[in-house]
TrEMBL record:
This is Amino acid permease-associated protein. InterPro entries: AA/rel_permease1, AA_Transporter_AGT. The gene is yveA_3. Its main location: membrane. The keyword Membrane applies. It is found in: Membrane. PANTHER family: ASPARTATE-PROTON SYMPORTER, PTHR47547. The keyword Membrane applies. It holds the Pfam family AA_permease_2. GO terms for molecular function: transmembrane transporter activity. It is a multi-pass membrane protein. It comes from the Bacteria. It comes from Pseudomonas luteola.
């Protein structure tokens, strides 16, 4: 491969690892747990393990393909190599839509986090209709956050790496401290066996699978798969 067509390696292994971790640890670590518990109840813990196994197989597949075809734009090229130009085109457009939409998803998630602040302006970011719709102020703030997140990614890989490494460290520390604080304040080991013996809180396999698919368990990890 000639130098003019070689892949630019502006990120080191540590920055790449932080980029992957930063993609995984996003809004899903709270929203995913919340929605999974609503859908699967006590079986939500098993939904997370099942989701981890599914993502592991997908990640290992892309790791193998990435080593076999060390080229940029893997999500487009792999489909092109295996099924032709049409499959590559469809896969590329689908991947582009997924990446673009994730920015707006994270922007709205950021606004939703802000509604827990005690200031009145933060609590007014959602409309009073109760249907989960952003108010005018919330829409404006979400739009501004979309611009900020876009510029952060657009301004350059090195800038993204520097800022993302610091943000990822923060993302690792906060959930870890939260989990430790919750366990120290009241850890109940019997909750891991609730529903196994049946009864009112019995575990449902269909509910677990639904939680894996739509609660955010897979979504929070799939965006970190290298393209």
């Amino acid at each position: 491969m000639s130098n003019e067509h070689a892949i630019r390696r502006d990120l080191g292994p540590l920055a790449l690892m932080f980029a992957g971790l930063g993609s995984i640890i996003g809004s899903g670590w709270l929203f995913g747990a919340w929605h999974a518990a609503q859908l699967a109840g006590p079986g939500a813990i098993y939904a997370w393990f099942l989701g981890a196994v599914i993502i592991l197989f997908i990640a290992l597949t892309y790791a193998e393909l990435g080593a076999m075809f060390p080229e940029s734009g893997g999500m487009v090229r792999y489909g092109h190599y295996s099924h032709g130009s049409l499959a590559g085109f469809v896969g590329g457009r689908a991947n582009w839509i997924a990446i673009v939409s994730s920015i707006s998803v994270e922007a709205e998630a950021s606004v939703q986090y802000m509604t827990s602040w005690h200031w009145q302006w933060a609590q007014d970011l959602y409309s009073v209709s109760g249907h989960g719709e952003l108010s005018i102020t919330g829409l404006i703030l979400a739009a501004l956050l979309v611009v900020v997140y876009f510029l952060l990614n657009f301004c350059g890989v090195k800038l993204y790496a520097r800022s993302n490494s610091a943000i990822t460290i923060f993302k690792l520390v906060v959930p870890a401290l939260t989990a430790i604080a919750l366990m120290l304040s009241g850890f109940h080991g019997e909750n891991f066996t609730v529903g196994i013996t049946g009864g009112d809180h019995s575990i449902s396999i269909s509910a677990d699978l639904t939680a894996v698919a739509i609660s955010g368990i897979v979504f929070s990890s799939i965006v970190s798969i290298p393209r």
